[in-house]
Amino acid sequence: MKSTAWRWSLAGGIVAASVVLLYFLLANVSLVPHVGRDFFFSPEDPQLADDKAIAREFGSQELVIVTVEGDIDSASYYDYVRKLSESLLAIEHVYSVRSLTHGPEDLEEATSGPLWKRLVIASNGKATNLLLMVSAEELDQYVPRVIEVVERFQTPYFKPYISGVPYMIDRVQEELTDDLIIFSTTAAVVFGMGILLVFRSLTVLLGLLVCCADAAIATLFLIHFFGIQIGVLTANVITIAFVLTVSHVVFLTHSWHSVLARDSQNRGRCLEAVRLTLPASFWSMLTTALGFGMLIASEAKPLRELGITGALAAGCGFIVAYLIYPAFMSLVRGSSESFKQAASFAHRLRSRKFAAFSLLLLGAALLCVAGMWQVNTDPALASYFEPGGDIRKGVEYVDRNGGSSPLMFAITASDGDSLTTSDNVEKMWKLHKKLEEQESVGSVISLPVLLEQADEHPFSFLVSWEYLVEILEGEEYDDVAGNFITKDRKTGLFILRMKEHERTSPRGEIIASLKRIIEKQGFRIKHLGGMYSLQSQMAELLKDSILSGIARLLPIYFLLAWIAARSLIAAACLTLSLAVIPALILGSIGYVRMPIDLVTAPAAMIAISLGVDQMFHFIRAYRLRLSTESDHESALVTARVHLTRPVVYSTFLIAAGFGTFLLSNFPPTSRFGVLVCAGTTLAGLSTLTLFPFLLRTFISGSAQERDSEEGQAETSQ
Fold it and tell me: Is 342 strand, coil or helix?
């Protein structure tokens, strides 16, 4: 009785300490996802060097676009745009507004002027644009105000749509914040219900939730210590920590039940359960941490942060599970009868029944390999928003009528001469028209358009292009020329609004074709920047990190499996069984062209981590059975019988937890849930069918004897 009371007191103390830790976490660590202007890369990354150079030479203001659909010829429409422009201009951090009423003198000049018809008039002629020059920072300070003003001005006759990088980034941050709170909580509830359904024990439920929560808290404290903010990828840190902890707890609980079934009076049964599970858990933790750690070398900031976060979560999940959960596990009273019934059911799962299924898995994986190279890591920013939703409709409307994603080219003349000479101005004007002719380009703003607009003045023919530039640099024109040409007149800026809707070619190919046009017109590209360019670079890095990352991981897993299993054949079987998981997942989504964005990218890594975990436990069980079973076949069957319950339970729990993500209104989160559910299911199937099938097929008699001797030596030790 005293012993039981002491154990309950210990468990209660752990729960109280966890609550205190949670309080300090909420008080000192921000859990709001941070999605800044440079969320693809960190300021030190080379990919941002051109953007920073363009900002130094031409300014760093951002653009929010409000497109108003209506009868643009009517007086009421003109009055509506004027009032909306003035209301938006009154918002802090909105520096200027260019619109039908703020720029051109009237509608005629707006529709005919070289500059204004490109800036103000939508390409369908049924709407006009309000272009807001805004701060590149403090998006959360002004974007909600812009949205509030636009919604207040919406009527049945005038339909405003919002787009622009600051607006989309703010909406992504809002969606991530909602998902972090709602679905992390929902997933925890589903995990809890699953635990109750599987183990029918409130004690196990309490222990699992405390361990998962403590692992998440510890991970959040550590990433805060390392200066990592919650971001696009690390917004899933809580669910990642939960997943990597659940598996350890499930296998520990299963070992506890098996020890109770053999000898319920054994006072050392808690240590015995830990001894049975710890080696395999350690190897699975190590392989998982190494898998995430491979991302630390990535050039992309979110991938590096995910690598650090995932490795820390793997370590925290392992430590918490083995330090804290035994205190709850020792309070569990298992039914040996229920364990024997589960074992009886598992014994009916003979290996010969899965030969055809295993071959089917291998064949399907081979067919999907080619699809891995077709993975769409280059989706439009609009794919971050729900199809048919107001945000998505607004972004796509603006995109169709002038483009939505900025791309900037800073160019110089091939001969290094001034860009304001008559010859170079004429060449830039030809280049401008060539760029506008491209299907992927919406509108283009550049120095030639400014000069052409200024040339509309009756006496402009009396002055040179250089003098016109000096006039446009004056206070009267807000130094508009300074946004498109440097003081030494050697570098000019072309700002392109790129179309994303129904884009079929990768951004990289489109940018390459635009580069060729620029060079063919006699100019050199000095800097290339803008969100469109950053997304293109991220797409390449994301695809490289997924494919080459898996290619680098599998040899590492092979080496660690060889050390753990002391068998080359077993290591090869484990590696092949693991390779099936990403091949099927990535190959399938490559064929169907499902968008793989920054949020969805970790799904394959989580699935492989679960597969590694389960297979290392299988190797451990198989080697131990070789010491007592009469032959290799019998040892495999017994090992699978022993692990059927924990593998099925962990697969079910994790798939159910992530299944809640399918209900998200944020498409990347729902896609993430789909892929993790599919990946965890494949991991469980591969562990119970393909892996033992390959072991049974390829381990010969001499290898069986050698593994049996090693298993006996390990058991005696």
Answer: helix
